[in-house]
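dumping this here before i forget
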Amino acid sequence: MLFGRSPRYSRVAPGEYGDTKSENPVADRFDYYISKRLFYGGLTAALFVIVALVTAEIIVSRPSGSLRFSCANPVVRQEWRNVSDEEKAEYIAAVLCLHRMPSSLEFDPDSKRSDDFPWIHAQNPPDHHRTSNFLPWHRYFIHTYEKALKETCGYQGHLLYWDWSLDYEDLSSAPVFDVEHGFGGDGGPEEEGSIFKGSCIREGPFSMYEVRVLGEENKPHCLSRGFGRLFGDPFVGPTVSPAAMRGVLQANDYFDFLAQLEGSADNDIPLGIGGDWVLASAPNDPLFFLHHTQVDRLWWMWQQGDQGRRVMQYTGPKVDADSISPTSIPSLDDVLPPPLGNGIKIRDLMSTESDLFCYRY
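structure:
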């Protein structure tokens, strides 16, 4: 999905191409789920091998920070198709409102508040993809988006999610792509200036919706999608089917879970949608936030499988998983990197039922 990280993965079992096995079990686990990278810029495929990774597993029963980890009345986030048309309209109205408000970052004199999010997401993608903080970083990222909808545009609801596993046989027919009660569908015919074979959305509330960030560049363009065009594949999702997600949820530890989820669903949905979703500026598309709320939901579900052990479990590489560094041991006391982080620690992002978040699924 993202500029600066692997956009498409194939799953290859360790040893499938020979008998030689790494002595590093962490590298074996990551190689199993992510074995080939396709770098955008020239769309050139390159095989990479992870030589060594240092991981740490930190499992504690209760964080020592100042946040309370048991809010009184957590809200329950809902799936898009389970809310009324009126609630859908209120959500989209708040999203469009955010697109009329001035940027709080002012990276461009014409940028809007909605442009702040793809700009933040595009800054140093290796800091928050293919690393241990992928899940907590995005949990906080979508929280800041929800906060902006509420505080800037008076939205009274909560974040919604798109459970794409319900639509895996024909993702293009998912209710989120409805023209009247959703985010609009595919882009129009491919044309000159298309973004990774995606083109301008022509119908629905985000028709000809102008965004200003493209990858790490400031480049105004229309919001683009291109269902299945990038690789010429049908826009279906066997890797996001209910059976596939049940398999992901059976992972034994945080790193296994993260590697499987990011290497399948969080990769294949963006590449299937194409267009703006291929780059680190994927949050240009408001649907991105429903996708990542679903990713967050799956993490929450995995945590609920063994709350005493999993809620505060944090393993894996601290840096981009194909970087080798003696300082790559993660800690719950790590802080989110700028520009998103405000000194907030990872430990404060592990539970959804803290005073900071106060939600469940």
